[in-house]
Queue: 2 jobs
Job 1
Amino acid sequence: MSSNGINLYANSSSCSGALIGPRHVLTAAHCVWEDGALLKVRVVPGQNGDGTSLSDIPFGTFWVSHYFLPKGWLNDPAPGNLRYDYAVLVLGEEPYLGWLGFDTSSYSSLKNVLHEATGYPGNFDEVQTFIGCDDSPLAVGTPPHFCFGYQYTQSAQLERVYTNELRSKHDAANGQSGSPIWKFSTQYVKGVLTKGSSSWTKITRIRTGVFDFICSAIAATPTQGIHGCY
């Protein structure tokens, strides 16, 4: 399992995320903190449709019981604060699915190396302009073709590697914030997709401080005695 839809009382995905433990989800901080308050969200592992039928949510839906956000984001929840745009969510129940690992990586193991971006693009951009998905399962006949509720994965190189940030040419649309940037060969997450632009997709890099934050969140809310850095 690599990615989940994160819904705000809606059928379509508002953000994306990845299970990194039995009931721990890594996502972007801006997906769960808005205007100085937490957003009540639910996580839909492996969503495959718009959520209008049970077959679209094959593993059920799960409400979040605990939220962990870095102080750096709470003090400055600005869209450009990529350094702290990450969060760990703890599900109230365990979905009994697999999860991805996560780790820090050196410059040489990231620079110009293919990584996957897996998430759930929405149908509209920031100014509510419709965005179609040519690869949508619904892309039959006359457009528009809706993409929300369906998981997409794309490979691209990490072309820029900075201390706190990675940059790539992965496609990125609203709804894909929080997507894991992960290496297929190891099944380990290297960063969190946090912002798309016409030039770059920007990714919050898992560095030592982020790694320690995630481990602390897992240790504070262990599942069946299991905790640590997988």
Job 2
Amino acid sequence: MSDERIDRIRSLIRDVPDFPKPGILFKDITPLLASHEGFVTCLDLIQERYASVRPDVIVGIESRGFIFGAALAARMAASFVPARKPGKLPADTDRVEYELEYGKDSVEMHRDAIAPGAKVLVVDDLIATGGTAWAACELVRRQKGEIVGAAFVIELTFLDGRRKLDGIEPFSLLRY
């Protein structure tokens, strides 16, 4: 995607070496969030991409996916559903476990969060290995939602997380 808006977003991503551990180059989105223009531009670009499919539900993945997902849901007249870490939701939940580099993790969603047939857009700030995004999509599928897309601000292409999304074409504003 070549666009001056993308260049503006890219300029607001800060590289933090050796975080959270030595050898990792962390892509910090906090300067992007601190920029009204940058944040709104991200929302504009994702909304433009999915306007024609008109999602009924935006699923935001904990925690930074909540920031982008809730704002998109408000703009797109869709409901917002959080995909959360275990034990954070108060009602009956479903859980999907996924593999990490050194172990496992999981995400949960309320069992009644998505109506069968609802068009769902899954949103997060970043896709790396794809495990969390895959798990959120699996929760949507279990509730018989129709996944119309998966949108990310950043994609770490060298980790090939998009292959885990199995049939869902991810949309990423920035690719590193």
